[in-house]
Predict the 3D structure of the following.
Amino acid sequence: MDIKKKVTLEILIIFGACLLVYLLAAKFDILEMIVAFSEHYENWEFDELITVSIFLMFAMVVFSIRRWQEIQASKIELSEQNTKLQSAIKEIKQLKGIIPICASCKKIRNDTGFWEQLEEYVGHHSNAKFSHSMCPECLDKFYGNENWYIKKKQNDKETK
C-alpha cells in the first residue's frame, strides 16, 4: 500500500476513534463518572494518574513528531545519495559485446564503420588510459640487430 494511502487511512481511523470516544463520553458522562470515582476513592490518587496520563500523552506527541522529523531527514539524505549513485552509474563506461578487430594491424572498427587505433577506441568507450611499452619479443624483433641492444642484453645477463 502506498504511504500516502496508509497515512490517510490511519488519520481516518484516529478521527473515527476520537468521534466514538466523544459520543460515548457525551452519552455516559464519563468525565463526571471519573471525577466522582476519584472523589470517592481519594486514597488511590486517581486524579494524579489522570495528570500523569495527560503528560504522557503530550510526551508521546512530542516523541512522535521528533521521530517523524528524523525520518524525513533520513529520506532526504537517502534521496541525495540515490541521486549521486544514479549519476555515478551514468558515468561508468563499459565495453560489451563483440569488438571487430583487424587480425593484422589490431585496429578496431567503430560503430560508424571506420577503423581506429585500439587505444583511441578503448579511450572513447571506457575510462582506461594507455602507456606504451614493448614486450621482450617485440624488442628482439625491432632492435635485435642493433649493437646497443645486443650490448644491453649482454649486460642484463651479466648483472643477473
Remarks:
- The chain has a mean pLDDT of 85.
- The two ends are 74 Å apart (CA to CA).
- Residues 3-91 form one domain.
- The chain has two domains: 3-91, 93-132.
